[in-house]
User: What shape does this take?
Amino acid sequence: MDDTEPAIHLQGIERRYIQGDATLEILQGADLAVWPGQSVALIAPSGTGKSTLLHIAGLLEHADAGEVYINGVPTSHLPDSERTTIRRTQIGFVYQFHHLLPEFSALENVMLPQMIRGLARKEARERAAQLLSFLGLQERLDHRPAELSGGEQQRVAIARAVANAPSILLADEPTGNLDPRTSEYVFSVLTQLVHASGFAAIIATHNMDLAARMDRRVTIRDGVVVELA
Ligand code: ADP
Ligand code: MG
Assistant: This one.
């Protein structure tokens, strides 16, 4: 095991949902550490808690117990404002559906998070154009989401997620909504980006071929994270 610090470390994560009289025990002491530059595929059947785990890792949701360390900093007791700052600056999130803003161009969608963070328009524009070009979208900068294919939309969403140069990239079935060929292409640019940028990445997917190309594969079994071969 690497002796540097993990970019993200989930320790003893518990999460349950109350449903009427029943309690659903989803995560029951889940542990996962991911180091900079490492990509981890999270492969588990529907309903086992992949999204829950990613939301907790991305500080979008609180665990009932356990701790999320982001670059060594424990986050569970931080005020919401600090959790939000960490999320904005250190974590990028890609969802199954792109959630791009329809009235803005690809370029603007990638500029916005940077400007929210305080970067000047010029710098935000340069970085957005660079990222979109890296993802093969240099000819699509001025297109709105509706003028892009599904795979292109998802690549813009990936560029937006990493616009603020996060140290951690979380993706929840990012190619789940795409046909196999497009999915293959989006996944390959995503993994190239992870390796080029040194993100720690956790990517939930059902696609075993894509998962096979990542550095590690894990699943969720009985509420805990289990390493796969
Ligand atoms: P996955 O992403 O692996 O399909 P989820 O993390 O979305 O699984 O959900 C895990 C389980 O928790 C599912 O059984 C789901 O119905 C349940 N669940 C998720 N969110 C809630 C919620 N807000 N309230 C109640 N149950 C929930
Ligand atoms: Mg899910």
Summary: The chain has a mean pLDDT of 93.
